[in-house]
From TrEMBL:
Name of the protein described by the UniProt record: Nucleoside 2-deoxyribosyltransferase
Protein origin, superkingdom: Bacteria
Pfam families xref list: Nuc_deoxyri_tr2
Database matches in InterPro entries: Nuc_deoxyri_tr2
Amino acid sequence: MAKKLVFLGGTAANNAWREGIIEVLVAEGVDREALFNPVVKDWNDEAQRREEAAKAGASHLLFYIADPQQDGNPLSAYSMVEATMALYDKADRTVVVFDTEGMGGHPQKAMSQTAKVLKARFPEARIFVARQDAINWLVTELK
């Protein structure tokens, strides 16, 4: 069986979802080496190359869309674009999580509507609106 690698894409800024999900998956028995976190302190050309290589070689492309927790930036617009492109290009490898925790008003409505529309367009895709459902699915896939 080919080695599994999950690219952890999606919301960045001040939301530390990656650390939390890595901790939970490792506690569930997933190999830490199977989880690629693209966030680095100093983003440069080499970091970009590593990210692109990880995306190309990943068995799973996880896009976790959540509140960036950044003033004036209530949505991760580019992350939603990336997730949508991945669903069109690599639906069989793409996993999307829409986490609206801490959101309200228009941002929450936009996220909920985006999840609904993408689920309708890609009925076989792994699109989750509950973090725990995504974690359960990933644990099953990666162990």
